[in-house]
Amino acid sequence: MSDAAEAEAARLAVLRSYAILDTPAEAAFDRLAALACDLLGTPMAMVSLIDETRQWFKARVGTDLREVQRELAFCDHTIRGGPDEVLVVPDLKADPRFASNPLVAGSPHLRFYAGAPLFGPGGTVLGTVSVLSPGARPEGLSETETRGLRNLAAMAADELELRLQSRLSREAAVSAEAARIAEERLRRAQEAAGVVAFEMAGRGGTITDVAPRAGGLWQVLGLSPSSLLHLRHVLAMVYPEDRPAVAAEARRLTAAGGEFRLEFRVKSVRWLQARGKIEVTRGQDQVPNWRASGIILDITERKEMELALREAELRQRTLFEAAPFGVIVIDPATHRILDVNGRVCTEYGYTREELLSLSLADIDALGDSEAIRVRGRAHAVRPGTQEVEAQHRTKSGEIRDVLVRAQGVVLGGRDVTYGAHIDITARKAAEAALRESEAEFRAAFEQASVPMSEVDCATARLLRINAAYARLVGRRVEDIVGRPFSDLVHPDDRAEDLAGFQRMCRGEAPMHEVAKRYVRPDGSVRWTELTSAPVCDDAGRIVRSVAIIQDVTERRAAEERQVLLVREVDHRAKNVLAVVQAALRLTPKGNTEAYAKAVEGRVMALARAHSLLAAERWTGARLRTLLESELAAFLTVTATSGEGGQRAELNGPDIMLPPASAQALSMTLHELATNATKHGALSASGGRISILWLLSFAEN
């Protein structure tokens, strides 16, 4: 390693010893930065510390930057200068070292810089106190200003050292208190465990004297009270796996002396701790004489607790790492990330080391610790526990929806917060799609021009209907929803309809199709054709049905009218054929030409009557129209009376004849007109006929 690299490594080691990087703002350093602005008349000042890759601002005025890359830091040039050099750059843009720096060429367009080194122990440069301005300062700094900036850097160094000593004092106090508590606990544990104090003397491997001579030492070692004590006897009682280490330490201590602290198991499977001191002297024969004083205590329970603690920690860590969701442990005061499991690294794309350098605000889309706290308080489930939906940003910049369940706990006297982070991005997307689908379905359902309904399979009650359904049954929506759908169905159709619906709900039929009638409040009936399909829940159970209903009342009425018309036409056609047959039978057959002419006239009369009836859809024929039609074949002019030159006069009320009467009367008129043409008034020139009809009513 080069001298420069060794010096930089030493500098960084000193810097880290202060444990100040990435700590929250402190008033003392903030005041120094503000004082630098006031003293030197610049809008920007900062107290900076420089590590391997960055310049980090412990205090800053006039900028929101927390840090900059070291290669962009003006202060990096300052710490590489002389031991007491204040670096002043009157115009950064004119200095080739800095002209292309993004902070000069771009926003915030800095032009002036002055920085004084901040020294640690032994002259190690840890950072700077610096001032900056977007305006150039050709005059630089006066001697007084330079001295002031250097003094501010010295004050910052003093504050840094004061902070270190304060921290070390606190840590020492904490350590001392911890030691005191540990000693107190140990003392109580020793008393509870029946600690045995001893003094013994010996020569070589032989124990020559033991005090006190109570049986405690023999008892704790598992020896018979009458046993002679020899080191080999003691070693024989030690658990085989621990015996080599204890024997080696015994040989060393009885030969050279010194303090000892041994933990070992004895054959009774108890853990013992022996600690004390051995002093060794040598006689003329150089055989070591030794004297030991100390205690032996039973630490079995402590060892068992330590084992249980290690197992608990192992289980906790195993569960921590094996959790099927991300777990993030944070400091609730600063939101710094203290620990994460592997799932977090996988889902967020960071390494564990990268995450441990971040805070919760760095990954939460809110980006602000106070806003995160406000949101958490608004979603407190109970004291110390919060459950909130948040959006977190991965290393790649992707935003993920996360359900956070946070629980505050105290570990080692320190407040920490464990947060389970469950990725719900897919669930949120599915919920949004479901809401959109439901909205589309609701709009289609409500605005559909055909009647639609939803029915609960368990109760057969209407859950939802649209306006078209309400119009179909002639009731208001609010009067229908919640009622059994069968209440609206014609009594004669209910049994078949309900049975088909139940078969579908049981899964015995893929759908339910039925033609049925609905009865309106005014008693009118609407014929419909219903098609119903089942709807299942997430477990696949059929829970409701959706039905589309088509109103076929008019179609069925038209079909019925058509059937009746066909029947009527068939009936009339048969009657006409019967009349024709009778005409053929009754017409004299002596003269073939006369026979044909007579038959033709009679058939034409029936045809004319048939045409009139067809025009009125076989509901009947008007008498005057029938008379005019039949006489037209015999007269050149037919009209109502009062016109000169008429040979026929028609008088009477407007009467509609039934179909059968119209056919019979047409034949009769044809025969009368034929006779009048041959033998009567129409056979002579100027002859006239008159037809008069009246209505008469029979008295009851």
From TrEMBL:
It is an enzyme of class 2 (transferase). Keywords: ATP-binding, Chromophore, Flavoprotein, FMN, Kinase, Nucleotide-binding, Phosphoprotein, Photoreceptor protein, Receptor, Sensory transduction, Transferase. It catalyses: ATP + protein L-histidine = ADP + protein N-phospho-L-histidine. It comes from the Bacteria. Residues 312-357, 437-508 form the PAS domain. InterPro entries: GAF, GAF-like_dom_sf, PAC, PAS, PAS-assoc_C, PAS-like_dom_sf, PAS_fold, PAS_fold_3. It holds the Pfam family HWE_HK. The keyword Nucleotide-binding applies. Residues 512-564 form the PAC domain. Signal peptide: none annotated. Its EC number is 2.7.13.3. This is histidine kinase.
